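Summary of Year 1 activities. Much of the first year was spent building the evaluation harness for sequence design. The harness presents a backbone, in tokenized form, and records the residue chosen at every position. We chose the following record to illustrate the format because it has been used consistently in internal testing since the harness was completed.
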């Protein structure tokens, strides 16, 4: 009887593949970058912009969380916004599977409703119980417009954002002395991150 030589078991057999022929080793999964929009899901630490707003008492955040802005149908507003008069909103959580976060952008859609007053505001966010604002003040036109500010890293730590930090932050706005009657109809945050599909 002719002796049969045993062939060493290779990777394909060990992994359940029947043959080396045409076998392609598994590739490293691709990393994809995307941006998600987070919207208010609860009132924040302060709800001072309540002199003008639609909706029932306590239903503050629902006036600004629509995906498509409804302008004057629902809004929050302030007669005399200044540095201590703030509006803050908690936001939706990030989806599962986030690998790294490269940017957090906070946006407010606002308008100045009266000819008098400067109409200045600061767009900001609150993280680790501290408020941070974008440099400069932004003038609100008589028509609604979007005003945004971005942070590549967490301004509190100086490091890349973590999922926990983004899930805990609040979108924030404050008025400026001399402002008068500003309405905000939409609030959101846009987070750019990577994930493995």
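For this record, the design step produced the sequence shown next.
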């Amino acid at each position: 009887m002719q002796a049969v030589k045993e062939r060493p078991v290779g990777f394909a057999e060990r992994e359940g593949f029947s043959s080396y022929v045409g076998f392609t080793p598994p590739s490293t999964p691709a990393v994809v970058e995307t941006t998600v929009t987070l919207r208010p899901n609860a009132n924040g630490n302060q709800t001072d912009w309540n002199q003008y707003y639609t909706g029932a008492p306590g239903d503050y955040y629902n006036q600004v969380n629509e995906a498509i802005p409804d302008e004057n149908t629902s809004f929050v507003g302030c007669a005399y916004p200044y540095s201590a008069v703030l509006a803050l909103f908690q936001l939706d959580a990030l989806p599962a599977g986030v690998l790294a976060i490269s940017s957090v952008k906070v946006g407010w859609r606002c308008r100045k409703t009266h000819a008098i007053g400067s109409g200045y505001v600061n767009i900001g966010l609150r993280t680790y119980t501290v408020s941070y604002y974008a440099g400069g003040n932004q003038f609100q036109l008589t028509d609604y417009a979007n005003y945004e500010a971005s942070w590549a890293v967490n301004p509190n730590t100086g490091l890349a954002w973590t999922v926990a930090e983004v899930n805990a932050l609040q979108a924030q706005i404050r008025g400026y002395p001399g402002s008068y009657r500003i309405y905000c109809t939409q609030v959101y945050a846009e987070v750019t991150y990577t994930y493995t599909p």
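The longest helix spans residues 163-168. Quantitative recovery figures across the full test set are reported in Table 2.
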